[in-house]
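Researcher: Here's a chain I'd like modeled. Treat it as a single chain, no partners, no ligands.
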Amino acid sequence: MEIIQENDEKRGTFKAVENGTEAGSMTYTWAGPTKFIIDHTDVNPDFKGKGVGKQMVMKAVAYARANQLKIMPLCPFAKSVFDKDGEISDVLF
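Model: Modeled as a single isolated chain. Structure tokens:
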């Protein structure tokens, strides 16, 4: 599965794609130059239970770490991933 990031000055998306099919997407909004808010995660019903949502959150974490950014997970799913995994709290805002 490939996670593709699309980003502009105000918003962005992480999309999970497998064999040309969009397995899921996670949107975020920039909240200043050093942090972004994950506001929605959606997984294609055909891919439920395959860890697609978590893969997108982890890609966002890797992006935040590589660019010294912080994440505010307002999306309930993303927040639950942060709540369960203390090893990613370094990017939590």
